[in-house]
Amino acid sequence: MNFIGAWSLPGGLTPLTAGILGALITTYMTFLPCFFFIFAGAPFIEAMGGNKRLQAALTGVTAAVVGVVLNLAVWFGYKVILPNGQGFDFFALISAAISLLLLQKYHFPLQYMVPLGAVAGIVWQLFIL
């Protein structure tokens, strides 16, 4: 979204340069605090590893996080495969099945799946539809 905002008001830069800088700054400022809290807090959590009460609380939090992630996966899967709540998006369904096969059976490296999916989507939109 900030790419579009920076593109619309580029100041003294070209719209593409402003858009890329806006997207990079947004990404940086979004993820940097998360990593800071993880790296700053991890040693304290490790030091408290022997505390049974704390371990029980962390186990409960872990279970809740797994539940939230599962809920989001089901919700996003439904919205992607049934975009309007009616007809199937067969490209999304076939892409998901192929991705699952590549990851589970052939142990395809995960870092190549997103670019591969992006290329497949671009090819689908440009040449197939």
What would the average pLDDT be, to the nearest integer? 91
**Mind describing the biggest β-sheet?**
none
- Give the ordered list of helices and strands: HHHHH
Question: How large is the share of residues in beta strands?
Answer: under 5%
Counting DSSP H or I runs of 4 or more residues, the number of helices is 5
User: How much is the radius of gyration in Å?
Assistant: 21 Å
Give me the count of strands: 0
Can you walk me through this structure?
The chain is mostly helical. The chain contains 5 helices and no strands. The protein has helices spanning 2-8, 15-47, 52-81, 90-104, 113-128.
Briefly say what this structure is.
The chain is an all-alpha fold and 129 residues long. The protein has 5 helices and no strands. The relative contact order is 0.04.
Descriptors for this entry?
129 residues, single chain, mainly alpha, 78% helix, extended
Question: Topology, pairings included?
Answer:
Layout: H1 2-8, H2 15-47, H3 52-81, H4 90-104, H5 113-128
Helix pairs in contact: 1-2
